[in-house]
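Handout for the seminar on molecular recognition.
Each group receives one record of this type.
Step one: identify the two inputs.
Step two: read the structure output and locate the region that could contact flavin-adenine dinucleotide.
Step three: write two sentences on what you found, then compare them with the reference statements printed after the record.
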Amino acid sequence: MTEGLTVTELAPKPAKPHLPDAQIVTSVKHWTDNLFSFRVTRPQSLRFRSGEFVMIGLMGDNGKPLLRAYSIASPNWDEELEFYSIKVPDGPLTSKLQHIKVGDEIILRPKPVGTLVHDALLPGKRVWFLATGTGLAPFASLMRDPETYEKYDQVIMMHTCRTADELEYGRQLVEELHNDELIGEMVAGKLRYYPTTTREETAQMGRITDNLTSGKVFDDLDLPRMNPAEDRAMVCGSLAFNVDVKAVLEGFGLREGANSEPLEYVVEKAFVGDGI
Ligand SMILES: Cc1cc2nc3c(=O)[nH]c(=O)nc-3n(C[C@H](O)[C@H](O)[C@H](O)COP(=O)(O)OP(=O)(O)OC[C@H]3O[C@@H](n4cnc5c(N)ncnc54)[C@H](O)[C@@H]3O)c2cc1C
Ligand SMILES: NC(=O)c1ccc[n+]([C@@H]2O[C@H](COP(=O)([O-])OP(=O)(O)OC[C@H]3O[C@@H](n4cnc5c(N)ncnc54)[C@H](OP(=O)(O)O)[C@@H]3O)[C@@H](O)[C@H]2O)c1
């Protein structure tokens, strides 16, 4: 039956080349035309603090790794790693990454770093997670980490996107957390979720900065105004958002901390390249 086939056709297929620091994609979910999440195998040796980011990517056309910073969206106890990603139409990485499928390989450099970690804040009563867009990713990790609920009496997740569909990944994650057998009890009564949209009419609207300065979020959640004695904050969004929300937090008397000097709030960019 093999008569007529060429030598090339008979030759065994070459094994798929293994990328350096390769991890295997285990699931992919597309949330909107611009957003998707995916899970990959976790390198056995990888230890990280919830909220940190790593460099991930694919092999570029030039044969060199094309890497970008990505917050790990899964908590540090998870046996896999989850990421929540934008799809930039002409983006060098995400124009390709958005097409990954289960079984594909991605590159993951196992060197986690970042400022959105519990160690960078002084102890407090409440922690505010303030995110726009994919800036939710580090908080998807921190919200699922029991340490967050051991450290704080109240955890407030403010997430703002343009439209309701862009909030869906976070909304489902919070819902699942409340129903989770293991962590659900810790979360109950402590995690307050405050999603808002800015360009689509929904039940709760407005920019995070506006809802903080007007006092609306404190009134809605029946919480006192932010103060440096009780409140801590972690911020992750566009550069413009980060700059504006920092001014708001400083207005409440909170000071920016770091791993080396824990204080009342910490900030990380959700991406680079958007000027203000
Ligand atoms: C510390 C850190 C953590 C990050 N974590 C994440 C993450 O968890 N998920 C994620 O999707 N991205 C994250 N990013 C952004 C990520 O590194 C890439 O920029 C993104 O994947 C796009 O890559 P690209 O090569 O397609 O386009 P790039 O050339 O990197 O970006 C092109 C343009 O797209 C816009 N852009 C890039 N990323 C975003 C974004 N996330 N949201 C909105 N606009 C964006 C910017 O205007 C940018 O100039 C993070 C960046 C930093 C610095
Ligand atoms: N053309 C489109 O329909 C479209 C859709 C999505 C993304 N994009 C592009 O993709 C990039 C990222 O978009 P993105 O939606 O993830 O991020 P984004 O444009 O930064 O907006 C995300 C959310 O943050 C709010 N925000 C922005 N700047 C703020 C600030 N200084 N203070 C407080 N809140 C602020 C936005 O409110 P406001 O709505 O009030 O600005 C929005 O609700 C942008 O360059 C954008 O142009 C375009």
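Reference statements: Confidence is low (pLDDT under 50) at residues 1-9. The pocket of NAP (ligand 2) is lined by residues 34, 132-133, 160-162, 198-199, 207-209, 238, 240-241, 244, 274 (CB under 6 Å).
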